[in-house]
Design goal:
Elements: H1 9-19, E1 24-30, E2 33-38, H2 39-55, E3 63-67, H3 72-83, E4 87-91, H4 97-106, E5 109-114, H5 117-124, E6 135-138, E7 149-151, H6 152-165, H7 169-175, E8 182-187, E9 197-201, H8 202-213, E10 223-226, H9 233-245, E11 249-252, H10 259-266, E12 270-273, H11 275-290, H12 294-315, H13 322-342, E13 349-352, H14 359-367, E14 372-377, E15 384-387, E16 406-409, E17 414-418, E18 425-426, H15 430-436, E19 443-451, E20 457-462, E21 467-468, E22 474-475, H16 477-484, E23 490-496, E24 503-509, H17 511-520, H18 528-531, H19 535-548, E25 558-563, H20 583-589, H21 591-603
Parallel strand pairs: 1-11, 3-4, 3-5, 4-8, 5-6, 6-7, 10-11, 12-13, 13-14, 24-25
Antiparallel strand pairs: 1-2, 8-9, 9-18, 14-15, 16-17, 17-19, 19-20, 21-22, 23-24
Length: 604
């Protein structure tokens, strides 16, 4: 068992920076070159930033916002605020000015770290209305002619002077924090309504780190590549706090679009990602193989089939015979090593969270010898509730509950959890807190699931997403969406049908693949709106859906669908920052065409 050597995140930071002073803590791209900071250098920077905040008058319990893209500066702003005994309010940088304003005002932020000029301008646009915000600190040192704005360099200068006058205060204050103190407010992206500010304590996060490390292994020899938003609880705990707690190096991807290149430059050993990432990698590999020769395709699928046989034998606890073992070695030499090289060559395992991973995608990676440990949790649970153990992962599940975490299934199938990982409550929202936390400490997750014969948790769907047809049939859309989104022809899908006679769907095609196919078929179209209306395209998607629905019950199968010409995006409000579709918003936006689809059927 991993022993807890600290009670708070600030204590952890001090302990680790002392122990691994000369080791690389952070790596970041500067132009074409990767630069690094040691733990000692990061500690020095954090001490100055904390001193700067104190010179501005920060007090214990204050709230400080961070609205910035991932970087070592985000990480150090986090630790600086925490060590100043304040709480960090994480704000996704892709949010609109209106959304940033709502969170900053609701959270009563006193100071805000802004990543660059764009983020600073967002805050400045409503600063005159935000009575609490006193200063905006610009992390990239962009200069503004505004007394309410200071640069990071100016904060560091202030901190240097403050710390010289108060030489022992940094460590004294950081070590005086209690595990019951609020560490952070994380505003749920939510698929409905206004976001809620989840209050997590130092004890919440520390318990989650220690329990997770009893299931997965990570140490100072590991290198993480971070690209999920640090504003998200999953990356903040696993790719930030947990990684630092073991002395691992964290390298920050330049952007979501450069992750593939950055993996080959950094050679990470551990990475966290959401299912959409794995689906895209899977799709690119399948497309690449489909474009190759018949011989190449035959070798590839021979390798995958032998990989799958190996996975099934391991899960069943059976030995890998010499014949299968030799086939697997050949498969790795001919096929799998190329995929391993594409992800950096040194990866020990991925961790997947944020949404359920398609079983087909999980089996594909596992067959290729790439381990994805799927886990489950919510912002309200710090976030990890369960994760697949490294020694015995089980595809199609999110693993057993981590140590110290209780899970039970309510009569209606809802997953309930209790333990040191459960939030303190929602900030300034007692009614919402009472709706999800009962008097016995059980948190109602809003997810439907079951515990299998081995005690592994299986997620079925969000409770509010369950479809009840007019015929009284219960349909979970998520399994269907997970199956269909692995098709090379489908980029995004939302399954519908509540209170209707049958199940339908909104589908965003994978336009690069569809357009290439249409050109091969010599179809005439001027734009995507024209393309999706072609009868040949409808025939293609009829076939795709029919083939994908083979394993589902008749009442679950998609009878009608609508092809959409544009992707759901974060900017349009149709996706959460963690890339989940905001079901209510999408349904409302396309209400007219959905109603038309069902009314046309009624008229027939």
């Amino acid at each position: 068992m991993v022993k807890n050597r600290y009670d708070t995140i600030s204590e952890m930071f001090i302990s680790v920076t002392n122990r691994y002073a000369n080791k690389v803590a952070y790596g970041y791209k500067d132009g074409n070159d990767w630069k690094t900071l040691t733990f000692a250098e990061a500690r020095s920077q954090v001490e100055k930033m904390t001193g700067g905040l104190k010179s501005l008058g920060i007090k214990a319990g204050d709230h400080v916002g961070i609205v910035a893209n991932n970087s070592h500066l985000w990480a150090m702003s986090d630790y600086a605020t925490i060590c100043a005994r304040a709480a960090v309010v994480t704000i996704y940088p892709m949010l609109t000015t209106k959304q940033v304003k709502w969170i900053a005002q609701h959270a009563e932020c006193r100071f805000v770290f802004a990543g660059d000029r764009e983020q600073t301008e967002k805050v400045l646009s409503f600063l005159h209305e935000a009575q609490k915000i006193e200063k905006v600190i610009v992390l990239d040192n962009s200069v503004f002619d505004d007394e309410n704005v200071i640069t990071l360099n100016e904060l560091l200068e202030m901190g240097t002077q403050y710390n010289a006058e108060h030489p022992d205060e940094f460590e004294k204050d950081a070590m005086s924090i209690h595990k019951e103190d609020v560490l952070t407010l994380i505003y749920t992206s939510g698929t409905t309504g206004e976001p809620k500010g989840v209050m997590l304590t130092h004890g919440n996060l520390v318990s989650n780190i220690v329990a997770s490390l009893n299931v997965i292994t990570a140490d100072e020899k590991d290198t993480f590549l971070s690209f999920l938003p640090l504003s998200h609880s999953f990356e903040r705990m696993a790719g930030h706090f947990l990684a630092t707690s073991v002395g691992a190096a964290i390298y920050y991807a330049e952007s979501i679009n450069t992750v593939a290149d950055n993996m080959q430059e950094v050679h990470p050993t551990l990475m966290t990602a959401v299912p959409r990432f794995y689906e895209k990698v899977y799709g690119k590999v399948i497309d690449s193989i489909a474009a190759g020769s018949a011989v190449k395709q035959k070798i590839f699928w021979w390798a995958i089939n032998n990989g799958r046989k190996t996975v099934h034998k391991k899960l069943a606890g059976k030995a890998i015979g010499p014949l299968l073992g030799s086939k697997l070695k050949l498969a790795h030499k001919l096929v799998f090593h190329k995929l391993h090289e594409r992800i950096g060559g040194n990866l020990r395992f991925f961790v997947s969270g944020g949404a359920p991973l398609s079983k087909e995608v999980g089996e594909f990676f596992s067959a290729a010898g790439i381990t994805i440990l799927e886990g489950y949790g919510l912002s309200e649970t710090s976030p990890v509730i369960s994760v697949n153990p490294l020694e015995k992962p089980k595809i199609g599940t999110v693993g057993p509950p981590i140590p110290g975490v209780e899970v039970r299934i309510a009569e209606d199938g809802e997953i309930l959890t209790r333990g040191p990982h459960v939030m303190k409550g929602y900030f300034k929202n007692d009614d919402a807190t009472a709706e999800v936390l009962d008097k016995d400490g059980w948190f109602y997750t809003g997810d439907i699931g079951l515990l299998d014969e081995d005690g592994y948790l299986v997620i079925i769907d969000r409770k509010k997403n369950l479809i009840v047809t007019s015929g009284g049939k219960n349909v979970a859309p998520q399994p269907m969406e997970n199956t269909l989104v692995t098709s090379k022809w489908i980029e995004q899908i939302l399954v519908l049908g509540d209170k209707q006679k049958f199940v339908s769907a909104l589908i965003v095609p994978s336009f690069p693949n569809l357009e290439a196919w249409a050109e091969e078929q010599r179809l005439q179209f001027e734009n995507r709106e024209e393309l999706i209306k072609l009868p040949e395209v409808k025939q293609l998607y009829d076939r795709v859906i029919e083939e994908s629905m083979e394993g589902f019950a008749q009442f679950e199968k998609i009878k009608k669908y609508i092809l959409l010409p544009h992707e759901f995006t974060i900017e349009s409000g149709e996706l959460t920052p963690s890339l989940k579709i905001r079901r209510n918003i999408v349904v409302q936006r396309y209400r007219d065409i959905i109603e038309k689809l069902y009314s046309e059927v009624d008229e027939q």
